[in-house]
């Protein structure tokens, strides 16, 4: 029986350690501009932003790619004179590919911070939303909190409590409940969001999605327990320890509720969450929208800085032929 070299290598590695996922995408620096498309669309959550196309983003240096750096930011220069005119320029990018069972690791140096900011890294099918569901992996507003990981679905999905201790904001994932709040769980690590995340040099977020569960991990930069397989060709999340957030499928049919998802990175300002009068902090200036209109320099730290995004998928060839080969 003929075995290709790559297959043989895979099988040898497979014997040495239980390999679950093989890297299919290693997105670094300029590769962000191929892997993602820019979405110059109206903000579906009514943020005070204008999402620009790639040409505009590059011309205004709202995205910047070099070596192992990819920056994505909101404009920090223009005063918006017309309160009913377009919002502050910002960027929303969406992966061309879609993913079902996969692991994705985000190596992030900096996330957008500041009053009115609403950064998000998330996954959805997008067309026909909420059909196909939504998973928010990194999200929060106005510098507040720890990071929240949240599911949004059609009716019929509940986040179950599990062995992992989590603080739920709400357990019903149904988008129709409580203004699409979703079933969000807050991470316990104070370094997982906002200025404290940035002051610590960022860190790694990882997400594993299977038909049976979804897990999100966070390791602050320089943490002692960052898994050694991050950034390599193969990862085995079973060795990563207890996730920060764990959604088992016990009260949800994941295969029915979640379709193939794009990865989306966006930076909104104000909008339904960050700008909600009950949410926008009293310690922040003006109203959220006035702040965005009048104070461009307040947004100089409203930027993402990604070192890399690695995506891993199951190597079905390895799994299917494993027993045969080991019997050889
Ligand atoms: C930004 O991301 C969040 C993630 O939850 C999403 O709810 C929101 O609709 C997104 N905003 C835009 C403008 O895409
Ligand atoms: C664009 O942004 C990058 C990263 O912040 C910076 O190093 C570079 O100097 C900027 N370029 C210009 C022309 O402002
Ligand atoms: C795996 O096994 C199947 C059938 O047993 C075979 O057709 C296929 O070529 C094998 N794949 C590889 C990569 O060896």
Automatic annotation (TrEMBL):
Residues 1-18 form the signal peptide. The keyword Signal applies. It holds the Pfam family GH16_XgeA. InterPro entries: Beta-glucanase-like, ConA-like_dom_sf, Glycosyl_Hydrlase_16. One of its GO terms (biological process) is glucan catabolic process. This is Glycoside hydrolase family 16 protein. GO terms for molecular function: hydrolase activity, hydrolyzing O-glycosyl compounds. The keyword Hydrolase applies. Residues 19-282 form the GH16 domain. Keywords: Hydrolase, Signal.
């Amino acid at each position: 029986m003929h075995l290709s070299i790559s297959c043989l290598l895979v099988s040898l590695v497979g014997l040495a350690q239980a390999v679950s996922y093989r890297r299919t995408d290693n997105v670094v620096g300029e590769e962000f501009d191929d892997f993602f498309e820019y979405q110059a669309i109206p903000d579906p959550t009514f943020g005070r932003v204008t999402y620009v196309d790639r040409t505009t983003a590059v011309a205004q240096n709202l995205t910047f790619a070099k070596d192992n750096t990819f920056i994505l930011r909101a404009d920090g220069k223009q005063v918006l004179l017309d309160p009913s005119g377009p919002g502050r320029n910002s960027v929303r990018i969406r992966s061309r590919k879609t993913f079902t069972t996969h692991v994705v690791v985000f190596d992030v140096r900096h996330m957008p911070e500041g009053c009115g900011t609403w950064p998000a890294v998330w996954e959805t099918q997008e067309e026909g939303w909420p059909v196909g569901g939504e998973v928010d992996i990194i999200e929060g507003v106005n510098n507040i909190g720890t990071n929240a990981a949240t599911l949004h679905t059609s009716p019929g999905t509940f986040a179950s409590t599990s062995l992992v201790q989590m603080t739920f904001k709400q357990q019903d994932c149904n988008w129709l409940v409580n203004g699409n709040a979703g079933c969000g769980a807050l991470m316990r690590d104070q370094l997982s969001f906002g200025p404290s995340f940035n002051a610590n040099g960022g860190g790694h977020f990882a997400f594993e999605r299977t038909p049976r569960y979804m897990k999100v991990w966070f390791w602050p930069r320089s943490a002692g327990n960052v898994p050694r397989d991050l950034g390599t060709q193969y990862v085995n999340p079973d060795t990563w320890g207890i996730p920060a957030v764990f959604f088992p499928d016990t009260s949800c049919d994941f295969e029915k509720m979640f379709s193939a998802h794009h990865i989306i990175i966006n930076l909104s300002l104000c909008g339904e969450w960050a700008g909600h009068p009950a949410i926008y902090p009293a310690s922040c200036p003006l109203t959220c929208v006035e702040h965005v209109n009048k104070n461009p320099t307040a947004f100089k730290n409203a930027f993402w800085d990604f070192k890399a995004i690695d995506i891993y998928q199951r190597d079905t060839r390895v799994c299917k032929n494993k027993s045969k080969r080991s019997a050889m």
